[in-house]
Amino acid sequence: MTDKPKLTIRLCGPRGFCAGVDRAIQIVVLALKKYGAPVYVRHEIVHNRYVVEGLQARGAIFVEELDEIPIEHRDQPVVFSAHGVPKSVPEDADAKNLFYLDATCPLVSKVHKQAMRHQRLGRHVILIGHSGHPEVIGTMGQLPEGTVSLIETVADAEAYQPEDPENLGFVTQTTLSVDDTAGIIAKLQERFPQLTAPAAESICYATTNRQEAVKEAAPGCDLFLIVGAPNSSNSKRLVEVAERSGARHSLLVQRAEEIDWDNLGELSVLGISAGASAPEIIVDEIIDAFSQRFDVTIDLAITTVETENFLVNRQIRDVELTAQDMAFVNGNH
Fold it and tell me: How far apart are CA 180 and CA 224, in angstroms?
């Protein structure tokens, strides 16, 4: 018999790493194996401290700008993060004779191409996204200055005054709230009936799938925990989705040690999911922490199974990853 209070954990699936994150981490690991340390990475490869620190321990050095790479190390590779970079960054790398590997998620690259297509066809580009996010900076940086406008909210869409309302095309950041974005697009379409949509959905499959799973699991949850970093857009959206979909309260946590056990309130049903850059080992760590305090029953809340896989860069496909390397890539380190 146990005197611990009973707790049902609704564990969402899909959760955690997506194919783009998995590919980006693999690229850094493969580059370290092929070229040796240090491998420089411009910006956090993905928005997760645990992942970044694990790669640092293997010999990756993270910089915000290419100027930070010492001259004596400029024959070492530099990796561009999964969020994408403005065109000026590879141009700068070429000017400095740097060898670079682009780990931009293929679905972010697809948005870049969609934005460039709009512009090539004479449309002014509306980018729906969050100001200052690396992905937004990267997408806006694909286009000449003055050819793209950032819209963040329905209020922005209401106030927007384009020079040529007849020639507009939109794309979106890949990690937005599906519902919020639908509202912004609807407002823009109402005001500008000629607005051209991208050829394919910009919000990525992983963002959509994780939000759908949280929506299904949230009703009746006393608390919903999202494992992710405070600078992770897709993780923050999951917190919002959980509360909108019926969870009494939702929190973003990076590690179990951040949980304020004294202020959780009465718990009988707990929801757990993880943003696309959060490793499964941290989910396990949090479940273990609850298991020490509660008599836990796990209820799997799976809405779909993801099978996507993205190839790494051609230059490093000849390197083989060991089982230990793959465990590291999957977040078990």
Answer: 20
The phi and psi torsions of 93 (rounded to 5 degrees) equal: -65, -40
Q: How confident is the model at residue 3 (pLDDT cuts 50, 70, 90)?
A: confident
pTM of the model: 0.94
pLDDT in tens, 15-62: 999 999 999 999 999 999 999 999 999 999 998 999 999 999 999 999
Amino acid found at 281: I
How would DSSP label each residue in 171-208? Answer: EE-TTS-HHHHHHHHHHHHHH-TTPBPPSS-SS-HHHH
Annotated binding site: 18, 47, 83, 105, 133, 174, 204, 232-234, 277
Closest CA to 98 of 148, 39, 159: 39
Which SS3 state, helix, strand or coil, does residue 241 take?
Answer: helix
Residue set of the binding site for dimethylallyl diphosphate: 47, 83, 133, 232-234, 277
Domain identity same for 100 and 119 = no
CB 248 within 8 A of CB 294: no
Active site residues: 135
Give the residue ranges of the annotated binding site for isopentenyl diphosphate.
Answer: 47, 83, 133, 232-234, 277
Residue 266 CB: number of other CB atoms within 10 A?
A: 8
At residue 282, the pLDDT reads 97
The binding site for [4Fe-4S] cluster consists of: 18, 105, 204
Whether 31 and 94 share a structural domain: yes
CATH at 315: 3.40.50.11270
Element (H, E) at 295: strand 295-302
Q: What are phi and psi of 125, to 5 degrees?
A: -95, 130
Task: Write out the residue range of the structural domain in which residue 221 sits.
Answer: 6-17+205-302
CATH code, domain carrying 225: 3.40.1010.20
Residue 318: the pLDDT is 97
Cross-sheet strand order for the sheet of 39-42: 60-63, 39-42, 78-80, 100-102
